[in-house]
Amino acid sequence: MTNVISMIVSGVLTGGVYSLVGMGIVLIYKATGVINFAQGAMLMLAALVGYGLVIILPSPWVAILLTLIIFGFVGYLAERFCLRPLIGQPLLSSVVVTLALSWLIEGIFVMGSGSGGERGYPPLLPTGSLEVGNITLSMSNLVNFAIAIVLFLAFTALFRYSKMGLAMRAVAEDHEVSQSLGISVKSVFSQVWIISMIAAAVSGILIGSATCVSVGLQGLGWKGLIVVIVGGLNSIIGCIVAGPLIGILESFAGVYVDPLVGGGMKETVPFILMLLVMIFRPYGLFGLKRIERV
Amino acid sequence: MLPCGTRSFHYEEDIAIVRTRAQWGMLIAFLIILFTLPLYGNVYILSILSMAAIVLIAVQGLNLLTGYCGQLSVGQAAFVGVGAYITAILTTRFGVPWLAALISAGLGAGLVGIIFGLPALKIKGFYLAMTTLAAQFILDWCFLHLREWTGGVSGLGVDNASIGGIVFASEQSKYYLIMIITFVMVFFAKNIARTRVGRAFVAIKDNDLAANVMGINLRFYKLLAFFLCCGFAGVAGSLLAQYMNLVNPAQFSLGDSILYLGMLVVGGMGSITGGIFGTVFFQLLSTLTLVLSPLLYAVFPGLGMVASSAMTVFFYAIIIMLFLIFEPRGINHVWLAFKGSYRLYPFAYQ
């Protein structure tokens, strides 16, 4: 029994990180209507840049801050040069552009990290494990989960209570009406991309320091997309609920299904769940019923 | 836009692929050059052209699905893999003659495509992209983990193709086989595009509700689009298997899917010639990168060996993004504009 509970708990904690990645994607979608397929690649690059800066600079916190600033700038560049020319074009263009962007960043990552191999971070955050009752929790997972919750609260507060969040929601509804009300759609797009890339950078550094910096981090981007679909594209709450759900499903699949089929199920089961959700409830658990169906 | 003075009085003239005598002349000259190339060309050029032809089949399949029918698919490489593995398993394990294996690969991949296309009946756009992405990953997992069938990470070896008693072992004979099959498949794609089925696809892309109201059976045509796309991918995979004499999962990754989509977008989406332009352009680009890499090593000695493949990826991605930003209708549009300009010069009469 404690085995099951520890699986659930570890699933919830890893799921927190997936929610963090998904939140960046939801942010961009809520304001611009574009799905950012490049989120995973961005976080991979952030892990690499963070690692490089942490090694060079004396204080790790300065390095992290600098990474966040750099990635805010990268988000601005990505929005300004890749996405803004594509406003008004059909969906395919933005999907292919973000896919190409993710591919580009993967290329940059491999070129920048030399052999594309794995790097370990010097320990920045508390590591080790915590014993609660009979269950062993990993400290780094707990910290990641806590940071994910903090960011979730920050984003919800942003959208609900601040003027910038109100502008973002207005732009998500209708570009022309927002412009007629005096909201600059272009600056809202930039703001949203900057914030989302900072979120990606935070998750990249967190995950990179917990595990290692390698090309495989891109897989988190796909998990983030799955979280977003299962939870609903429009909803941050859906994100925070779906993340742990997928984490739990993964740990169960890893323990129970893997021995039957020879491994690798941890990556595939979330995709199967996503397919099922898309067939039976396309707008996700908490999303709004705006998906066109045929 | 037809050359000045050309009028079409019958439907067959209107939809003809090769309309004027000059075009027939150019086509015949091109075919002669293409099919006599092994006599004087070196093996390297033949191999580039063979790979380009195989990729062209896959890209034309994707063109039918995404360019004409508007259903986004990010999983094309996985379906190519399905065709390759079906061929490999049938020829090595069951001793099926190669031509039958080719046809089965096409049909088999098409059926798998229908299974993953079923969600397309209910969802559109981005959700469909995610479904095909899921297809890519799930099929990837199948290639890696169904070890008794697929050989896992190391893959399967494939014998050379043989039709009748002829074994296609040398580079030249493989070139002929691939070129003939490519020609047939591209002609098939062009025919699908210019007749009833193609028009139904385009109608579905423009506005599927209106197409449904007009009487086009959406379910049938959407599933048919998936079947054709994945069928083409299966044929391409089959040719790839016998060309490389090897199939393994690394050949069919997400990066290749993105590459096919990129070729389609760069070449020009809704047209068969666009697919040809895109594929040829990317083959030239990869050859160019291969030539440029030694120069880059000279300039940046710090880059490792892996950097050359990353450099290729980098260039591909940059090119795709530049085309999307500056010329979203692709090379085909530039070509049509040029053709229009020289056909109308200097008088604008038609």
Write the layout of secondary structure elements.
The complex is a heterodimer of chains A (294) and B (350).
Chain A: H1 2-32, H2 39-56, H3 60-83, H4 91-112, E1 119-120, E2 129-132, E3 135-138, H5 139-161, H6 163-173, H7 175-180, H8 185-210, E4 212-213, H9 219-231, H10 236-261, H11 265-280
Antiparallel strand pairs in A: 1-4, 2-3
Helix pairs in contact in A: 1-5, 1-6, 1-8, 1-9, 1-10, 2-3, 2-4, 2-8, 2-9, 3-8, 5-6, 5-8, 6-8, 9-10, 9-11, 10-11
Chain B: H1 11-14, H2 21-40, H3 43-68, H4 76-93, H5 98-117, H6 126-145, H7 147-150, E1 156-157, E2 162-163, E3 166-167, H8 171-194, H9 196-206, H10 208-214, H11 218-244, E4 246-247, H12 254-267, H13 272-299, H14 306-326, H15 330-344
Antiparallel strand pairs in B: 1-4, 2-3
Main pleated-sheet profile of chain B? 2 strands, antiparallel
Please trace the helix and strand order of chain B, writing H or E for each element: HHHHHHHEEEHHHHEHHHH
Strand order of the largest sheet of chain B: 1-4
Mean pLDDT of chain A, to the nearest integer, reads 82
**Form type of chain B:** globular
Q: Order of SSEs of chain A, N→C?
A: HHHHEEEHHHHEHHH
**Count, helices of chain A:** 11
Globular, elongated, flat, extended or rod-shaped: what is the shape of chain A?
globular
Helix content of chain B: over 70%
Task: Write out the strand line-up for the largest beta sheet of chain A, numbering strands in chain order.
Answer: 1-4
